[in-house]
């Protein structure tokens, strides 16, 4: 007996340390070095708390979302941090005036949260994110506790670790925005509903309602919890055959408590309830359902201004789940049919949470990938059940020992996700092709990944504080946090800026949108950058200096005719996939006056000499005919050659030359050593055409899914035999 008690105490001690480890695993990656592009909630949080301090209660209405919980938390953190720094500096100057005078400007005071011009203020954004990251980490621990009550300890630990290691949850938790906190509060509220159905205690319903009210104060989409509550209570009614009043009373109590929480924490409701509610309904619900974003959306190569359709969210779920959560969420749903009734009901209701929230968001015209985060968190829990069920099933029906199968699977997820720190948004589901496939469906860099590194590069240049930096609309929010120089809209300042910074999210979405793509499509898409940020071989951000001479990465010094020299060229990539565009820039120089206008040809040929792709046009899209070239000046000549979708894998030769469009006679082409080139064409390089996703990755994905499917059905097949 004593030995058993000692073992239990030892187990509890280890579990407490494990909980500490879980908290650190959930908190540290979220709190350290945020990657947070949007700034609207930084400024709204500072302004909200400032309005509260001034007693301007009507001034606490900033958005139809409404974002009140985020503004309370981040606003308090921002102003608290500013107050602490100011008090500490004042105290130090009072106590140690001489020493402080030697090491610091005696007139210096820390900038207030709203003072951002002339500062790189990423550290203050990090302060605003800190309480949100803390609550998310605590929410993961609380969710584990609730799953222990609903299922068992093993399933709860697996789910909690999947939440802690979910790359999309991690990425959203590092942003000063609404979605991570919203999803956490919604999930906890839903889990408390399930606990209430299981244990029938009023306090569980009350806690669910409080969390639901906080979720609604975060974003109006949390109103989904009301029909979900009705579904839970209706399911309970049909299961136990209780009177209808048993649904009505808890539902009304839940709604009342949630409404009281909303009223108590939003000062705007105290002084202007009618206008505040009208704003929420008209702008927060009706507008989002009927009106899509006015900015271009890119989905699977189609650029539209409007609703991208349900397939947009299907791709979001496919690419933002993981190699564990995507297949095992399906297994978990199937496992619900074989488990005992209460456990099965909880899994089915969590699956219903994911499905119906997906449907709710799909009905709206305004769509963002991050809107799917509540769906993914519910799927994490369902997949945890699937993992536990699958391992138990395989262990019971085979001689294989799967004692470490679950820890190894979670370690594998950690090894895939954690090395991405702090750029967890660059992690895509390897089962469906990973980053290479994802960028063909959805534009990358939702959270501004890479723009911070571009900004830090610019800010590290000598005299950086005196620069003017131009960048694309919305990219400026991320860039401004990391540079001291003023950041201007690229559509307004153009090439008058000292540096230009482009982000992949906006170059992909904005070919026809002037504030994103005009200057990029015209010039810088084809020019060698001074600095580039890439993840998985995909460029995320480019830094250019407009007044610098174009960099010519590859020299050729070939000659065409008597007066034209091909100095060199730039090829954006040596390997492309069918359907991709090959970006080539030729650099010409006139050695003497040129008589006649010539057309440039660019050919991509297979090993057998067959022409696969080509582009023929006068230099610089016909805007700089050869007879107008200035002697000695460099002519920058861009080309975009589209690889056919049916192009086979292999090595292709890229060559260029010139011809007279009237006679089709080619100009004689000579190598740098003066030798005549065959067919009067300059062979530039070999281009490899390969599938975007290598075949072996699809084989691994198929093998992994086959193992999961075999483990799921083998016991059934064995019993039938």
Output the keywords.
single chain, 721 residues, alpha+beta, Immunoglobulin-like, five-stranded antiparallel sheet, 17 strands, 52% helix
Average residue-wise pLDDT: 91
**What overall form do the CA principal axes indicate?**
globular
pLDDT < 50 runs, ≥5 residues: 99-103
Q: How many structurally independent domains?
A: 3
Strand content: 5-15%
Percent helix among the residues?
A: 40-55%
- Calculate Rg over CA atoms: 30 Å
Main sheet makeup: 5 strands, mixed
**Helical segment count:** 25
Count of individual beta strands? 17
The computed structural class is alpha+beta
3D architecture notes:
The chain is an alpha+beta fold and 721 residues long. The chain has three domains: 2-41 and 122-438, no CATH class; 451-544; 554-690, Immunoglobulin-like, CATH 2.60.40. 52% of the residues lie in helices and 14% in strands. The protein has 25 helices and 17 strands. It has a five-stranded mixed beta sheet. A five-stranded antiparallel beta sheet has the order 14-11-9-8-16, with no helix packed on it. A five-stranded mixed beta sheet has the order 10-17-15-12-13, with no helix packed on it.
Indicate the topology.
Blueprint: H1 2-31, H2 40-54, H3 68-95, H4 97-103, H5 122-150, H6 153-164, H7 167-173, H8 179-199, H9 202-218, H10 225-240, H11 245-265, H12 267-271, H13 273-290, E1 297-299, E2 302-304, H14 310-320, H15 325-335, H16 341-363, H17 373-397, H18 405-417, H19 434-438, H20 451-459, E3 469-471, H21 475-480, E4 487-489, H22 490-493, E5 499-503, H23 504-509, H24 518-524, E6 531-535, E7 538-544, E8 554-560, E9 564-571, E10 575-576, E11 581-590, E12 599-605, E13 611-617, E14 634-642, E15 650-659, E16 669-670, E17 682-689, H25 695-720
Parallel strand pairs: 3-4, 3-5, 10-17
Antiparallel strand pairs: 1-2, 5-7, 6-7, 8-9, 8-16, 9-11, 11-14, 12-13, 12-15, 15-17
Helix pairs in contact: 1-5, 1-6, 2-3, 3-4, 3-5, 5-6, 5-8, 6-17, 8-9, 8-10, 8-16, 8-17, 9-11, 10-11, 15-17, 16-17, 17-25
